[in-house]
């Protein structure tokens, strides 16, 4: 049963767009026209995760840094621990993309944490502090940190949601850890320009295990031929990972030094998501009409983002769902 119910951005045709893609691109990470020469002098933490490979694949000049090698051909610098970044002493860089964290919200949000069990703060807050403290005396032109739109107060927001909309950072440890990351951004602006990027519902093809609606639905339908969700009533703002990758790299060269929301600026119902997924899979999806947490409707105000960069998303929700499903199908050898 699928409980996690993110929503989706809808750009392009609303239903016939399912037929936009007739085959899987050879390189699913890089399908949009862009300038691949950008990124020189940039290091990226988190290249083995979900979003990192999209950025690295499209911008081969960006250097991956971390314990686990990235799946791309970019240069990778191994570090055993973020407590010691001496491996970067002789590396020339002045821009940083920091995407280290944990995406299992349920694990991060559970009420009790065991004595020796890592918490959201161990995954999000402490590592970020370690990195920023070690690089603060370098001539950093831009540092990009990633927070979440889950930080907003669902009982007080109005649409569209902007960077100045009311927040509630005390919902659970996951959200609190993101809030503390945002506070670290404010503190380290004493040394470097920092963009705090509040991500909407990110989705797209990946070989990793993820907990978002589209990824979980694709796997469930391919494995079982059917799926159930708690509710089809919420509406969300989804953004395809490759679209997000290009926006992030553009932000590296912007004058922005504040919080921005990164989404599609569109709102799509979960009902539409499951209708499209049912069509591309040929399998039934049942809504149990149970109560769900989170706002019933969310759409990002992209005014700040689009003042900072000349960008708009190019992958429609229909095309993105089809790509995600076909990737999962190919990954299973079906």
Helix content: 25-40%
> What is the CA–CA distance across the termini?
23 Å
Topology order in helix (H) and strand (E) letters: EHEEEHHEHEEHEEEHEEHEHH
| Rg calc | 19 Å
Main beta sheet: strand number and arrangement?
A: 7 strands, parallel
Strand order of the largest sheet: 3-2-1-4-5-6-11
What is the number of E strands?
13
Low-confidence stretches: 1-23
With helices defined by DSSP (H or I, 4 residues minimum), what is the helix count? 9
Which outline best applies? globular
The averaged pLDDT comes out at 90
Beta strand %: 5-15%
Helices and strands: which structural class? alpha/beta
What does this structure look like?
The chain has 334 residues and is an alpha/beta fold. 31% of the residues lie in helices and 14% in strands. The chain has 9 helices and 13 strands. The strands form 4 sheets. It has a 7-stranded parallel beta sheet with strand order 3-2-1-4-5-6-11, with helices on both faces. The longest helix is centred in the middle third of the chain and has 16 residues. It is globular. The N terminus is likely disordered.
């Amino acid at each position: 049963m699928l409980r996690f119910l993110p929503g989706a951005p809808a750009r392009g045709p609303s239903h016939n767009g399912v037929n936009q893609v007739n085959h899987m691109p050879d390189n699913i990470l890089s399908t949009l026209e862009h300038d691949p020469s950008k990124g020189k002098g940039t290091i990226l933490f988190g290249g083995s995760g979900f979003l990192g490979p999209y950025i690295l694949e499209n911008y081969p000049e960006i250097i991956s840094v971390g314990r686990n090698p990235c799946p791309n051909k970019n240069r990778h610098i191994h570090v055993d621990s973020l407590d010691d970044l001496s491996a970067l002493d002789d590396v020339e860089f002045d821009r940083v993309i920091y995407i280290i964290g944990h995406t299992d919200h349920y694990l991060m949000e559970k009420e009790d944490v065991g004595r020796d069990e890592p918490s959201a703060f161990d995954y999000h807050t402490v590592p970020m502090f370690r990195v920023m403290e070690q690089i603060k005396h370098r001539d950093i032109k831009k540092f990009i940190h990633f927070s979440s739109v889950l930080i907003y107060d669902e009982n007080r927001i109005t649409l569209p949601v902007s960077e100045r909309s009311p927040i509630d950072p005390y919902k659970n440890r996951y959200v609190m850890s993101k809030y503390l990351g945002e506070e670290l951004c404010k503190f380290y602006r004493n040394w470097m320009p920092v963009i705090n990027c509040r991500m909407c519902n990110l989705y797209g093809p990946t070989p990793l295990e993820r907990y978002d609606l589209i990824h979980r639905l694709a796997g469930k339908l391919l494995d079982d031929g059917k799926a159930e969700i708690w509710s089809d009533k919420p509406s969300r703002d989804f953004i395809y990972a490759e679209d997000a990758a290009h926006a992030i790299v553009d932000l590296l060269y912007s004058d922005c030094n504040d919080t921005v929301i990164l989404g599609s600026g569109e709102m799509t119902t979960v009902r539409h998501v499951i209708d499209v997924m049912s069509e591309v899979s040929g399998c039934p999806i049942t809504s149990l009409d149970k109560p769900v947490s989170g706002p019933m409707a969310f759409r990002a105000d992209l005014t700040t983002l689009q003042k900072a960069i000349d960008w708009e998303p190019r992958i429609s929700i229909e095309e993105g769902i089809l790509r995600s499903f076909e990737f999962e199908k190919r990954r299973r050898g079906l």
